[in-house]
Amino acid sequence: EVQLVESGGGLVQPGGSLRLSCAASGFTFSSYAMSWVRQAPGKGLEWVSSITVSGGGTYYADSVKGRFTISRDNSKSTLYVQMNSLRAEDTALYYCAGGSSSSGWWFDSWGQGTLVTVSS
Amino acid sequence: EIVLTQSPATLSLSPGERATLSCRASQSVSNYLAWYQQRPGQAPRLLIYDASNRATGIPARFSGSGSGTDFTLTISSLEPEDFAVYYCQQRSNWPRTFGGGTKVEIK
């Protein structure tokens, strides 16, 4: 069974940092392109960042570029995002999501999310 | 950035009725469009990818159509579990973008 479990969320002050992790199991992690997608309270989905299967390619939304860094460790089947200079508007439920070539690289697997709250 | 506009924002229907949801892209995305369902308190679930292909385990009452800039998700006969929010998403260009969502509610 495919499983993605996010962790690392919490309450942080504006300007602070957090590192989110997403532990994968039940599938070949190294064959999946992975992403972070967030959802502010009561709002829609917002793509944040993606990383290729090897980790050689990374992509970011303009809203987080220069502040967030996505990475992966295929030996540990884990996805990360380092979030710096956090702002109130970064408050959201952060999902990790992934997909493989068999599903056209769409987000066919999702975690349950970890909540990040940026507030003083 | 490709903007996806979903309509209507809310669709009020009864179980057994047909639901037709629209997603319009600000520029062509070819067939690189997907639909997701999100039930309250749950993560999104992939329903349709590449505009018209049902994802694994998705019932046949869900179908997708369209290409270029205009896309449709159709639910042929609404089941109680289908009342949820639906999002379209494109992967034609970076940044990836989602539509604002259509809520299908019980009338």
Task: Give an account of the 3D structure.
The complex is a heterodimer of chains A (120) and B (107). By secondary structure, chain A is an all-beta fold. Chain A contains no helices and eleven strands. In chain A, strands 2, 4, 5, 6, 9, 10 and 11 form a seven-stranded mixed beta sheet that branches. A four-stranded antiparallel beta sheet of chain A has the order 1-3-8-7, with no helix packed on it. The N and C termini of chain A lie far apart (40 Å). Chain B has 107 residues and is mostly beta strands. Chain B is built from no helices and eleven strands. In chain B, strands 2, 4, 5, 6, 9, 10 and 11 form a seven-stranded mixed beta sheet that branches. A four-stranded antiparallel beta sheet of chain B has the order 1-3-8-7, with no helix packed on it. The radius of gyration of chain B is 13 Å and the shape is globular. The mean pLDDT of chain B is 97. Chain A binds chain B through residues 35, 37, 44-47, 50, 59-62, 95, 97, 99, 103-108, 110-113, and chain B through 1, 34, 36, 38, 43-46, 49-50, 53, 55-56, 87, 89, 91, 94-101.
Please provide a brief summary of the model.
The complex is a heterodimer of chains A (120) and B (107). Chain A is an all-beta fold.
* Beta content of chain A: over 45%
User: Spans of chain B with pLDDT under 50 lasting ≥5 residues?
Assistant: none
Distance between the termini of chain A: 40 Å
Radius of gyration of chain B: 13 Å
Poorly predicted regions of chain A are none
Average of per-residue pLDDT values of chain A: 96
Summarize the largest interface: chains and residue counts: A-B, 24 and 24 residues
How is the biggest beta sheet of chain B arranged? 7 strands, mixed
The beta-strand count of chain A equals 11
Q: What sort of overall outline of chain B do the alpha carbons produce when their principal axes are compared?
A: globular
Oligomer: heterodimer
Helix/strand class of chain A: mainly beta
- The run of helices and strands of chain B is EEEEEEEEEEE
The percentage helix of chain B is: under 10%
Average pLDDT score of chain B = 97
**N-to-C SSE string of chain A, H for helix and E for strand:** EEEEEEEEEEE
Instruction: State the helix count of chain A.
Output: 0
The gyration radius over C-alpha positions of chain A equals: 13 Å
Structure summary, number of beta strands of chain B: 11
The major sheet of chain A is characterized as: 7 strands, mixed
Q: Would you tell me the structural class of the helices and strands of chain B?
A: mainly beta
